[in-house]
Amino acid sequence: MNKFKIEQDNNRGRKVIATEECRKGQLLFQEESFVSIPLESFLQDNKYCYLCCAPNVSGTIVNTATVADQTTPAPQSTFIQCNYGCSMYFCGSDCANDMTHQLECSFVNKFIQSALDFNCDISMSLLGLRTIIKNKLDEEKYKQTVGNLSVQKDNFIKNNKAIIDRYYQLIDVIIDQLVKENTAENILSIFNREEYTNVICSIMINSFAGISNDFRRLPISNGFFYQAALLNHNCEPNSLFFIQKNVLQMVAVQDVKPGQQLLDCYTDLLTPTLERQKNLIKSKNFVCDCSRCTSPTENDRFFSSIECVFCSFTQGNNSNATDANNTSKYYVSPKVIYNWETQSFSTTWRCNNRSCSGQANSREIMSLVQQVDSFHELLNNKELLTVDSNTIDPYGQFLKQLSKFESGILNKLHPNHYCCLLYNLRLSKVYEYLTSTADSLEYLLWSVSHYKEVSRIVESVIRHPSSEAIDSFYHLGRISEKCLLSLIHQRNAFTDQEMIDRLNVEIKKYLELIATSYQKSSDLATICYGDSNTKSMLLKELSLKSNMNKLSL
């Protein structure tokens, strides 16, 4: 981190300050984790290495020579299974025979069982084990890196006592078992309940999640990194990180001037202020006071804003929010406050029209808020959103219930509202799925329309280059390719020249949309991940191919 210096901060403990100018897209630093581990759902299969979290290349890979969702056979897997007792999978003999794993191996199944018994996260429990084992192997490195990070155990217990109590129970049972088994003293000394729970607290506060590299944004791993953990949080960050295997790279997504603080985001930027704050107080023990969080409209994003029921519809007023039709409306938005004494949040809903006759948190406003909550609950209803090949009338109940909100509260939300984002995201996937059950161009057209809106909202809410925008534009290009193929198939079935000409006009529009979407995704990926990243190279190929297709028409 020679481009930066660490300074003390009265509020945050420390901060990282740039000592030289860093340009958008510049790699700020990279580091290997002290320890990493796959998340619980990937632990006992062969998708990710149990030690370094390298992905298994077996199965299928994207073939960029054809449309984006076609695949070709990938190289045969080189993953091997541990033969010493834990049965975990590794990317090769180097990881399988690593000294850290050699020492942890005989304890892995004990920790898994104890984690199950006390409802602890298995991956977190094993990462704690791996950390204390590696600490014994390289104590100096531990002290100089992750062992030097803030634990905040007292605050963590205050906010998450039930969680940490379960980990106390887990380690107590492990120690009791080892004592009963007459474990050698030098081995038994590795396991200390306070040290283990301190490590668990530190991991929960300071660790970083790795995301799948396949445009699905699946959390796949958890890594304990030191340098990245030094960066303070802000919901208007100037940097982002991505993780490949057990290596984290931090990249500037805005220009950073000398003397400016380097800021990361610890939470999901596509959630509203109240949800971000709840997540931060629970997982990181602080409340964010950035400009986005302290602004009821989230710095004019209007991500939680609802049309004011008291203000009349007006035209051309530049002091209020503008909706998707470029007309003006007044909106009520929530001011979120955390009470440290009661440890609870409160929201005060007010209109952005200073002349509004309505009172804050009036009965009429709160009635709308309740409708939004019900809408949000439906959009997250896993039961209604889970279908398979045996499902009768897939998504039928979901679409039926959704129609009630489409004719009601949906029209009262700002177009950037987080429920609008979820609504369009859900329907883009629903209609894409339905094309597999009924070969309907109409479903594809609807899916494209919703993907367009998802991409627009993502860019409106996250105003810097982001992985979320990369994936949104990729999916818009991908589903548009499906629509293009369907249009070409229809055109080729016609003999009427007038109809062929009409379809050619539509085909040209979709070729343009595909090229624009992939180009946008590729440009953003180059900034966020660099030119040599696998995802960046794939998107560049897709962009070049789509531009060639556009020019060939």
From TrEMBL:
Q: Which Gene3D superfamilies match?
A: 1.10.220.160, 6.10.140.2220, SET domain
SUPFAM superfamilies on file: SET domain (SSF82199)
Question: InterPro entries given for it?
Answer: SET_dom (IPR001214), SET_dom_sf (IPR046341), SET_SmydA-8 (IPR053010)
Among the Pfam families in the record, one is SET
- Which intervals hold domain SET? 2-267
Q: Which domain of life is it from?
A: Eukaryota
Q: Which PANTHER family match?
A: SET AND MYND DOMAIN CONTAINING, ARTHROPOD-SPECIFIC, MEMBER 4, ISOFORM A
Name the record gives this protein: SET domain-containing protein
- Organism (species): Polysphondylium violaceum
